[in-house]
Amino acid sequence: MKTVLLIFTAALCFATETHSWTQSDYADFQKGVRRNLSIRSDGRLTLAPKTSEAFDSSIAYLWTLAQDSHGNVYTAGGPGAKLFRIPPGGKGEKIAEFDALEIHAIAIDSKDRVYVATAPDGKVYRIDAAGKSAEFYDPKQKYIWAMVCDAAGNLYVATGDHGEIHKVAPDGKGQVFFKSDETHIRSLAFDRGGDLIAGTEPGGLVIRVSPKGDGFVLYQMAKREVTALAVGPKNEIYAAAVGSKNVPRQTAPPPAAPAPAAPPAPAGAPTTAITITPQVAAAPAAAAMQLAPVTVPGGSDVYLIPANDSPERIWTGAQDVIYALALDTEGRLLIGAGNKGSLYRVESPSLYETLVTFPVDQVTMLLPARDGSLYATTGNVGKVFRVGPGREAEGSIESDVFDTAGFATWGRIQPSGELHGGQITLTARSGNLDRPQQNWSPWSQPVSGLDGGRVTAPSARFLQWKATLTASAKNESPTLDAVDAAYLRRNVRPSIGVVEMTPYNYRFPAPTAQLTLSSAATLSLPAIGARPPAVHAASESNTYPGMTYQKGALGVRWTASDENGDTLIYTVEIRGTKERNWKLLRDKVHEKYLTFDSTAFADGEYRILVTASDSPSNTPEDALSTQTETDPFTIDNTPPAITGLAVAGGVVKWHAADALTDIYQAEYSLDGGDWTVVDPVGKLSDSQSLDYALALKGLSPGEHTIAVRVTDENDNTAVAQTLLK
Q1: What does residue 406 show for φ and ψ, rounded to 5 degrees?
Q2: Domain layout of the chain by residue ranges
């Protein structure tokens, strides 16, 4: 049963609660290293078809495959236009070589005569049983992309740059059989009624051509090039197309994107899958050549075109490039793709499976063999692989590395799936490097079965598991849907960054009432289809509300965080700088700020101590705390003293002094009028003691009242007045 992780509010998150690391979907398992395992698009792992290397051509690319009635398999590619033959159970060998760059197509007629098409000179050669070759037909075209033979031994040749199909009789006499308005005929196959199906470029057309050479467009693909075709048992047509139509074609077309598999070709009608060829320069024929993978702007599509129904897109891919289509023995579509060397099988329009990932960049051609197996040619490097029949006896996957973002103790590891008489074994290893190389622990003791067992790897930050699937005695595969690994992060002490006092005479709003655990049980879901993180959310953000004026109020604020994402609670204490003991200001503070009434304290110098504890998220035994105190600050609620206020010679003089803070401002008012700012002697308000001299000019005769007001930095104000006669 798959475990789903949900994100609860901070009040529900506990550092000491056990978490699960769950790997259960396609993306999870794609990050791992698989050996002999297939992966379905819904995340199910099974043992892969038995796969072996049948031939290594020592050239960069093999593009085409064909098999004669005796079971001999023929393949060719480039650079270096060599033809190879692989006898049943024997060793492959070169049987012919041509003065050309590459070979893109091979066809074999009912009499086992082998035809080879070269590029870019566009000629067809016929090879006899002894390997002797002779030029058979020249269509006067630059490219020959595909060839198929009918039951009468006629050869059909798909060409470019003029988009023609030539029909060539067994005696080598040929002519244009069908002329399209397209630049290239890229792929060919016979349907079950004897009509020829052709795929084109750049219009991306799928065309049915009758035995009389009359064409009818079955479907116009959204992509540029129809690279591969296959015909199913109900005469349905599968077509793969690649590339955006607004991107010009290269001289040698690029590869195609990965797709789900295609059903086998009808018996007696050759299946031809044409691959896209990257542009390469001639290279020494002796050694295989590593070439950079090729990408196609616009991705790839595979469509099903039923005999009497509307076409349906059954697979699409933005990255991989489709090279080949075929059908397996049960009529399911197989797809050969690059640039990850993947062989796909389509189970339904919404489900596909990566059957095999070859140790190459591209799967370029697929050929269902007479014994139920499948041959696949590859590019970068050019090899032939044999897939099936039967499945591998054992396969394994090493997971991606999981980061707990701390130091963790491991618990139970458990698979989800079905055994089907086989076995699933799990083991794990841990370390404190982000990649499992040197200085990780060895693999732990394996645990078998669906009940799993405890991970015996040492406590650490990172974890990796390995699952091994073993077939039953009847060669049935177990299925692995998910792996859950339990872990418990070690608690980490919270951290307090800065603690600072806020401006005097301003207060924070009253804190909101704290929710109880039961009322705080709210649930936040991720976006649909998204996976919640395995680690609970981090501490609340360091943000603060606005402050409002209140005489005598004093505030303190701080930053704090917790590596475990624990909920934090704070204690705030105060003491005078000449005092020994801290006095509690407030306990169980949930905000990162506090306002208190400074008038409850005598004037003087103080410090505040903030203690952060992660106790809401931990047991008393595991809870940790940390403390930080402010720099000294002054509490001053006493107004300045005004002395020596007197008038002499039309000048008002006075002295202002404050015991603890600087004088901030002085003002005067004449006869109850508006207050007007007065500069001190020397102009600068930079001291706790200042003198003032105010010259009054233009006064009307008679008595006047002069009031002066002095304010210190804490907004404490003193007022005095005198009479001027």
Answers
A1: -175, -155
A2: 17-34+396-489, 49-391, 495-510+528-635, 641-724
* Domains 495-510+528-635 and 641-724 belong to one CATH topology: yes
Distance CA 515, CA 536 (A): 19
Task: Taking residues 461-475, report their average pLDDT.
Answer: 97
Taking the C-alpha atoms of residue 71 and residue 600, their distance in angstroms, rounded to an integer, is 101
Q: Is the dihedral of CA 591, 595, 600, 606 positive or negative?
A: positive
Per-residue CA distances from 166 to 144, 156, 494 (Å): 10, 6, 79
CATH 2.60.120 fits 17-34+396-489, yes or no: yes
Bond prior to 120 in cis (omega within 30° of 0)? yes
Rg (alpha carbons) of the chain, rounded to whole number: 42
Per the structure block, which two tokens stand in for 248?
A: 């010009």
> d(Cα 597, Cα 176) in Å, to the nearest integer?
100
* pLDDT tens column, 341-367: 999 999 998 999 999 999 999 999 999
Residue 529 has which token pair?
A: 């289809």
The CATH H-level superfamily of 49-391 is YVTN repeat-like/Quinoprotein amine dehydrogenase (2.130.10.10)
Identify which of 367, 214, 222 has the alpha carbon closest to the alpha carbon of residue 299.
222
CA-wise closest residue to 239 among 267, 266, 207, 268: 207
How confident is the model at residue 608, as a pLDDT? 97
Answer for the pair 89, 72: CB distance below 8 angstroms, yes or no: no
Cα(266)–Cα(257) distance, rounded to whole angstroms?
Answer: 25
Which numeric CATH code is attached to 495-510+528-635?
2.60.40.10
What's the rounded Cα separation, in Å, for the pair 53 and 39?
21
Question: 641-724 maps to which CATH number?
Answer: 2.60.40.650
* Cis status of the peptide bond prior to 716, with omega within 30 of 0: no
Residue type, 369: A
Any idea which of 237-251, 385-399, 411-425, 525-539 has the lowest mean pLDDT? Answer: 525-539
Distances (CA, A) of 218 to 121, 244, 266, 680, 687: 31, 20, 19, 96, 94
Residues in contact with 209: Cβ distance below 8 Å, sequence separation at least 6, in sequence order: 165, 177, 178, 195, 196, 197, 198, 215, 216
Structure tokens that stand for 561 in this block:
């965080």
**Cα→Cα distances 456→101, 163, 433, 638, Å:** 58, 65, 18, 68
Residue 603 and residue 488: Cα distance in Å, rounded?
50
Tell me the pLDDT of the chain averaged across its residues: 88
**Threshold 0.85, pTM exceeds:** no
Tokens of 352: 């596909």
Question: Going by C-beta distance under 8 Å and a sequence separation of 6 or more, which residues neighbour residue 139?
Answer: 122, 124, 157, 159, 164, 166, 174
pLDDT digits (tens, 9 = 90+) for 641-693: 999 999 988 899 999 999 999 999 999 999 999 999 999 999 999 999 999 99
Which residues, in sequence order, are bridge partners of residue 8? 523
Lowest mean pLDDT, pick from 129-133, 140-144, 164-168, 446-450: 129-133
Query: What is the identity of the amino acid at 709?
Result: R
